[in-house]
Structures are given as C-alpha cells and as structure tokens.
Write a structure and sequence with these properties.
Layout: H1 6-11, E1 27-33, E2 39-45, H2 47-50, E3 55-59, E4 84-85, E5 91-97, H3 100-107, E6 111-116, H4 123-128, E7 137-141, H5 144-147, E8 153-161, E9 173-178, E10 184-188, H6 193-204, E11 211-215, H7 230-243, E12 247-250, H8 253-259, E13 266-274, E14 280-292, H9 298-307, E15 317-326, H10 340-358, H11 362-368, H12 387-397, H13 400-413, E16 417-430, E17 439-446, E18 452-456, H14 465-477, E19 484-486, E20 489-490, H15 505-532, E21 539-542, E22 545-548, E23 551-556, H16 557-566, E24 572-578, E25 583-585, E26 590-592, E27 596-609, E28 615-627, H17 632-651, E29 682-689, H18 712-725, E30 733-734, H19 739-746
Parallel strand pairs: 1-12, 8-30, 10-11, 14-15, 18-19, 28-29
Antiparallel strand pairs: 1-5, 2-4, 2-6, 3-5, 7-15, 8-13, 9-10, 9-12, 11-20, 13-14, 16-27, 17-18, 17-24, 21-22, 22-23, 25-26, 27-28
Helix pairs in contact: 6-7, 9-10, 14-15, 15-16, 17-18
The structure holds pteridine-2,4(1H,3H)-dione and dioxothiomolybdenum(VI) ion.
The site of dioxothiomolybdenum(VI) ion has 10 residues, from loops.
C-alpha cells in the first residue's frame, strides 16, 4: 500500500502549519534571542520595538501568569530569560505585531545590556568544573578491572562525534487561537502534542482541558520537535491568552537553527581488551555528553548512549560511565537514534583501533564478537539476536569475497584513488527507555454508512505512521483501506500521549488501534449471530463478509454495521495499550527496558580521491531485520532516509559554534547536508524476514531510527581508504570526516611517501 499522503504531497495539497488558512485579526510573533551565550542582563529596553509601527505588544518573563518554566525532565529551563542568559538565542522577548515583517523588524530595535560571563562550550571542561545536568550514570557487567590482565592486547583512545542540525524542511512553529470559555486551540508542529499542552498549561496556568493541541502532520521532526516545539507554542499561547487574538509564529530558518538544540556532540575515552583469538574481553568507556545549557531530554539521551554502548557485541566485562555536561550551547535534544549512534560510534572506533594496531581486518573482530541469543546486555536484558543472521546473509548475498577482491585490485592498480570497505552492524532497542512512556491510545468510530474514523496519539511527520494505522484498522476489519480515514492528532480526542518518538509510534498506537478494532468486531460478530440466529462461535468475519460454518452469508460490512446501530450496539471504541513485560531499575541499572531489538548489517564501500580529499560512497548494502514488514515501501523509504541522514552526520554536516558560543553554521550556505549528489550510488536493502513472535505491531518491527546508524559505516570505510593511501596516518576518531579532514589525514606529518 502506498503512503496515503503521496498524492497530497506531490500535488502540494497536504496541509502543514503554514498552510492553515489564517483567521481575520491574526497577529504574528518574532523572538528576540540573547546575543550572548552567558551573562547577566543588566538592562533590557524593548521601547524601540514597542514604538515600531504595527507592533501590538512585547512580552517578557513579567507577563507570565503561571510558571516561567518549560523544562520537561528537570525544571531548569525558563521560557524567557529573567536575569541570566545561558545560551545564544535564548528567548528574552516575544514581539507580537500585525505582520511578520513588522514583528521581525521590531526585534532588531530591542536593546539589551549583558554583563558577559565565561562561556563554556566543551563538555570536558564543563565536567571538570562540576557542571553536570544529572549525576553520572554507570552501567556495569562482569569485572573490567580483573579482565584487563586476561587480555592479550589492550588499546586506548578517544573518539569525538559532533552535533547535527535536524533540518526538518518545515521549521518550528505554532498558531494559537482563542475559543470560548478560555479555551485555546494551538496548531503546533510538534511530535508531542501532550508535551506542548503541559508546557502551555504550566506557563499560562490554564488547566490542560482548556488546551486543544492539534497536529495534522509535520514536515519532518527527527527528534527536533520531540521537546523543543514547546517553546514556540507556549509563546503563541501566552500572547493569545493576553491579547484574545490568534497568534502565529513560524520560525525563519536561521532563527530555528540558532535557537534550537541539535544532536548532542559527545567526546569519549575508551579502553578495549581482546584475547589472542580477538574475542573482546573488556571494554571501558567514558562519555562526555555536551548537553547544552538546560536538561531538555539530555538525561534520557545519555541513558540510551549507555544502552547502546556495546552495539551488537557481547562483551563479558563492561564499565560504561556517562556524564551529561552543562555548557553554554542551546539545549541539545532528541535526534534520530537518541544517543545510541554516539555510543555505537565509540565501540566501532575502539574495534577499528584494535584492528589497525594488530593489522587485522576489523570485520574479523566485529563478526567474532556479535552477540547471540541468550547473551546478556550490560543492562541485564537477554538478547534475542539476529546479529549473526543479518551479518551472514549480508556476506553471502552481496558476495563479500568478490567485493573485497575488487577493492584490493582497485587499490593495487590506482595510486591517487583508493577504495575502502567497512561493515556496520546495528542493534537498537525498541521502547522508550522510560518505561512509563510506553503507552498509547486510539479512538475508533464506525459510522452508519460503514466508513471508519480513526484517531491516535501518533503524529505523522513523513514517516508514514498514518498509513500504517490505517492499514491496521483495515486489516482487522478486513475492509478496503479507502473506507478508513485517519484524523488529525488532538489532545481533546486522545489524552496524555507520549511523543511520536523512539521508533515506537507505530507499535504503541498501532496496538491500541488493533485493540479498539478487535473489540468493535467482537460486538459486530454478536450482532451477526443474533441477526442470523446462529451461535457466535460459528460466526466468522473475513473478506468483508460474515461467514457461518464456512459459507458466506448476505451480511456484508455495511449491513452488519447498520444492524448493530439498529440494535443499539456501540460502534465506537477507545483502547489503551501499554507494552507488557518491560521494566528497568535505575538504582541497579538493570532490567528489561526494551520490547525487542532491531538488528541489521550494512556493508559500505567508498572511493576516495587522494589528491582532493573528495569521496563518493559507492554502495551501502544492507540486510535489515524488519520482522514481517507491514509496508515494505514505507520501510524502504525509512531505510534510505536514515542511511543518508547518518552518513551526513558522519561526513559533511558540521555544526560549528565559536568560542563565544555563537553558531557559525547558521544557514544552508554554511551548513551542508547530503543532497542527491552525495547519496550513495547504490543502496541495496534486503529484508531479513523473521516470523518470530515479538511485540511489534503485526510483527512488523520498528524502522524509524535503526537505519541511521548504518551511516556510521561510511566513516570507517573512508578511514580504510585513507589508510590504504597512508598506512601511518594519525587520523583522529573525530567526525564529521569532511573532505578537509580527509586531506589532513591523507597528508599528515607521518606521511612517508608522497605518490607521484
Ligand atoms: N525519546 C524518549 C526517545 O523520551 N525516550 C527514548 O527512549 C527515546 N528513544 C529514541 C528517541 N526518542
Ligand atoms: Mo526521536 S530522536 O525518536 O524524536
């Protein structure tokens, strides 16, 4: 089944925030963000803005009736700066005017005098200063200290990954409008309608039942709108409450890039030990997470880094410690993978360093240490592993022997071009790591004409979740998907939603849809039995018909629905799903936090131009564990998008803050994302069809985040190509590996032989 949005998207008919027709009298907002990353506000003068033609009002913290606080996990983030600013772009004032132009123009008239304080942008410096968002966490397995003496080789190193701009095509924004009785409706480009509702409730002191947050779809989220859509929605709602007028703020791209947090940069130290057979016996790692100026989701991201610090490998002795370090950057936040990629990069770097030190192929070490079913993760859950199945199938299907021979032959016969090849196995845990968040609800109505309306807590952000929800309802009812319609997500229809995040949206909301539909169908079967005068056990529902004892009857969907209505049987259901079997005890750092894991292996090949430092990615060939995909077209799209987003993070996307904490890469001309020319020449995706029972909806495993991590393989393939040219290069484990850094690696100080 095609994505139900494909026609609307290609025709430009799909509605995003900026497509909502404006009500008469709508006002427009613009944020004045702090020009300084850290300091004390001595004087704030908004009079210039207030006097600007078209300006209706300028809001600051003094206008807040509730709490000036939007921190989700920890209350450490004011909506408006009061006396202190902690990052460049921190909202100080919100100008509301009759036009966007007037509002933006007025922002430039605001004057502020700030006493500058020291700016910290480096997480290691923050950690040394004791600036931690939460106390450090340590995951332990076995006894690392004892294990070192059993190791044949012990290797240490450091690995750094940079941030990543979400670059959703639709920027952040919200549109708030007053309804009667102090109710405010907010259209928000958010992954988390309930988080927006809570934040507004806190700031305005309005009860949650007065706040209808409605989301039709987003033009991309990638985690950037899991927590950080709250700010703009709260600003619009605040102004709406005061002015009793509709207020809209859709962010200009540079405001969005400057004011919002990104993927967390991490700096990490590792120590790894292997025995003479290259079995990894011990792994110790310390993560310094650059959290930015407030907690946002950093503690949860930190936790997922620890959960994924051994990727797909079984390591009997592990000690992993993670620090969430407060710096003067915008609060960093969720980004596809949610700390997992940062953890996985480090273990892959450690393995690569061992391989390079011993002169063996990293793939040999990787394959030898893949975990098997029954192996324990450092956090206590036992693996139900597809790691070997994916790896072995990739080797066989893509004929790894001839791939290797080709790379060797190429490198042997070319001096200025080199190829590299790397494996990237992935194991990603599915569920919110916070157990309580793993719940969802769905509301299903069957109308008397047989059409079905479906509302869930899932937010469509291009990932195709609405199509999957519709498929679930159509499959359970065994009716044409065309008779099912999915409605906008709304806090008045579905309450207390978890964000659409953690790759778990289709599972959680899909299960709730399934439960609601199964219950309605159960009632319909009773109706059928009564109508036909047979026992309910003899009634079967399939292919849109009632069957009795193996024979089709006259009762089709429409007749059955009408019969139920006539008999006053409910045709509506609201269902609640909570993932069974998951738990985690943070005091022990042990439990069973994930419903299941998703596995896969990618083989990445690259060709490097050793004169210019430029490269092309020849191929990313994947065997991925989809379970039993309920929508291969959508799942393939998620794979391709994830891979390209991941390799962008690894190669070209370079978030640069200067020493004063100002974002230099604040436009699309200074921040490069992959375009059609930088995607791999070939992306092959093979479906590892597994039929095992699991907690995925229709056994169709979650697909949102896992593929991003295949992109990590690109770094290691490039590294191999660089080493094929310059075996003694001292290239640091530092990403993104831009052509500039590649060149420095190709010709570093240890270069012994300059070709040509
Ligand atoms: N959000 C969250 C997430 O709150 N908890 C998670 O575990 C998570 N994982 C991935 C992406 N977003
Ligand atoms: Mo996400 S990083 O699953 O919002």
């Amino acid at each position: 089944m095609k994505n139900i949005d494909s026609t609307g998207h290609t025709r430009g008919e799909s509605i995003y925030l900026d497509d909502i027709p404006l009500l008469r009298g709508t006002l427009f907002g613009a944020v004045y963000g702090s020009p300084v990353a850290h300091g004390f506000i001595r004087r704030l003068d908004v009079s210039g803005a207030e006097e600007t033609p078209g300006v209706v009002r300028v809001f600051t913290f003094q206008d807040i009736k509730g709490e000036n606080q939007i921190g989700g996990i920890i209350p450490d983030e004011p909506l408006f700066a009061e006396h202190h600013v902690h990052f460049c772009g921190m909202p100080v004032a919100f100008v509301v005017a009759v036009s966007e132009d007037a509002a933006r123009h007025a922002v430039e008239k605001i004057k502020v005098e700030i006493e500058p304080w020291p700016v910290v942008t480096d997480p290691r410096v923050a950690q040394a200063n004791g600036e931690l968002i939460v106390p450090p966490r340590t995951f332990r397995l076995g006894d690392v200290d004892q294990a070192w003496s059993l190791c044949e080789h012990v290797i240490e190193g450091r690995a750094d990954t940079n941030g990543q701009e979400h670059l959703y095509i639709e920027t952040q924004g919200a549109y708030a409008m007053p309804l009667e009785n102090d109710v405010i409706r907010v259209y928000s480009s958010t992954q988390a309608p309930t988080a927006v509702q809570r934040a507004i409730s806190k700031v305005t002191a309005l009860p949650m039942h007065a706040l209808d947050i409605e989301v039709t779809r987003l033009g991309g989220g990638f985690g950037g709108k899991e927590d950080q859509a709250n700010v703009w929605a709260a600003l619009c709602a605040l102004a709406c409450l005061h002015l009793k007028k509709p207020v809209k703020y859709a962010m200009p791209r540079t405001d969005d890039m400057v004011m919002t947090g990104k993927r967390h940069p991490y700096s990490s130290d590792f120590r790894i030990g292997v025995d003479k057979d290259l079995k990894i016996l011990a792994y110790e790692v310390t993560f310094y997470q650059n959290a930015g100026a407030a907690a946002d989701l950093s503690p949860a991201v930190l936790e997922r880094t620890l959960f994924h610090c051994t990727n797909s490998y079984f390591i009997p002795n592990v000690r992993a410690t993670a620090y969430s370090c407060r710096t003067n950057l915008p609060p960093n936040t969720a980004f596809r993978g949610f700390g997992g990629p940062q953890g996985m990069y480090v273990i892959e770097a450690a393995i690569a360093k061992v391989a390079e030190g011993l002169g063996v192929d990293a793939a040999v070490i990787q394959k030898k240490n893949l975990h098997r079913t029954g192996d324990i993760f450092p956090y206590g859950q036992l693996a139900e592993s597809e790691a070997h199945a994916c790896w072995q199938k990739a080797e066989d299907l893509y004929d790894i022997q001839s791939m290797r021979r080709e790379v060797e032959a190429f490198n042997g016969s070319n001096r200025l071009f080199k190829k590299g090849i790397a494996f990237m196995p992935v194991c990603f845990g599915i569920s919110f790591t916070k157990t309580l968040m793993n719940q969802a609800r769905a509301l299903v109505h069957v109308y008397t004409d047989g059409s079905v309306s479906l509302t869930t807590g899932a937010v469509e952000m291009g990932q195709g979740v609405n199509t999957k929800m519709l498929q679930v309802a159509a499959a359970v009812f065994s009716i044409d998907p065309g008779s099912v319609r999915i409605q906008a997500t709304s806090t008045f229809k579905i309450a207390n939603t978890s964000p659409s995040a953690a790759s778990a949206t289709a599972d959680l909301n899909g299960k709730a849809v399934q439960m609601a539909c199964v219950e309605i169908l159960r009632r319909l079967k009773e109706v059928a039995a009564a109508e036909l005068g047979v026992a309910v056990e003899d009634v079967e529902w399939r292919e849109g018909m009632v069957w009795v004892s193996g024979a089709a009857t006259e009762l089709d969907w429409k007749k059955l629905v009408l019969a139920a209505f006539v008999r006053r049987v409910s045709l509506s259901e609201h269902a609640h799903y909570a993932t069974p079997g998951i738990h985690f005890d943070p005091s022990k750092e042990k439990g069973h936090p994930f419903a299941y894991h998703v596995y896969g292996t990618a083989i990445v090949t690259v060709t490097l131009d050793c004169l210019r430092g430029r490269y092309v990615i020849d191929a990313v060939k994947v065997v991925h564990d989809f379970g039993t995909s309920m929508n291969p077209l959508i799942d393939r799209g998620q794979m391709e998008g994830g891979i390209v987003q991941g390799l962008g993070w690894m190669t070209m996307e370079e978030v640069i803050y200067d020493e004063k904490g100002r974002l230099r890469s604040n436009t699309l001309s200074t921040y490069k994302v992959p375009d059609i020319y930088s995607v791999p020449e070939e992306i092959s995706i093979d479906f590892l069809h597994t039929q095992r029972d699991n907690l995925a909806i229709f056994r169709s495993k979650a697909v949102g985040e896992p593929p991003l991590m295949y992109g990590i393989g690109v770094y290691f393939a490039l590294r191999q190509a660089i080493r094929a040219f310059n075996p003694s290069t001292d290239l640091p484990f530092s990403t993104p590996l831009t052509p500039e850094k590649v060149l420095m690696g190709l010709y570093d100080k240890k270069l012994e032989h300059v070709p040509g």
